[in-house]
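Could you join me in thinking about how sequence relates to backbone shape in a protein? Would you write everything just below, so we can both look at the same thing?
***
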Amino acid sequence: MHGVRVGDVVDGGTYVDVAGRPIWHFVDGEPSGPPTVLLHGAFASAATWGAQIPDFLGGGLRLYVPERSGHGHSPDGPEPFTYESMADELIAYLDGVVGGPAHLVGWSDGSVVALLVAYRRPDLVNRMVVFGQFYNQAGREADEFSELLRRRDPHTVDVLRADYATNSPDGADHFDVVLDKELALIARAPDYDLRGLSGITAPTLVVQGDHDVVRLEHSVELVRNLPAGRLAVLPGTHILPVEAPELFNPLVLSFLALDPPRRWLP
């Protein structure tokens, strides 16, 4: 098996117990700063936040950067990937590791998980920033990467496998299992009725790239269904935080610090 134990320190992060499972996470920042959890997407890890972490730490946040099961340094489990189980894992992490409510910043799949947790456990969420994600199939824009994945393009799979093997305690051969589970998830989900998200009360900033995998109309509809939702459209694509951190980072920090005015006053 994976051979990792709770308390092991690897690559600057530590394994912690989350609902009986070892999950790798990185923690840094002001101990008294607002707890802020960064949630990565599919085939990703804490490393994808490399262009954000220095600025966010400079903004006085207490950062928690976990890698969910089957990603990065965190070992996989036997069950299929579902957004509901990812939300369960994050709830256990917030309750047991963070120890209370936090800001959530979700990228791609991490955005779905953030919204589900805010819906199910509003007591655990202060503010949210979500981006790079559709929430039902009507919101999806056709993109080359998803098509390459669907066809299991050999070059694309090899690149993802090499990145996975760099950190995973399960070994390179287990990537085929993770790939199968990710493709099964992508084929059927997410598929949420945006009207059902109207119960989310946490102030939420939805960030949309102007050439994203998400239809702009979908993000507009999402914000209209969030009672405290705001929308920002920035130049970029699905990897907006990497392409334009000079735009993205201060936007996130300012939203987490202070809710902008809701209407223009002359």
Q: What stands out?
A: The chain has a mean pLDDT of 94.
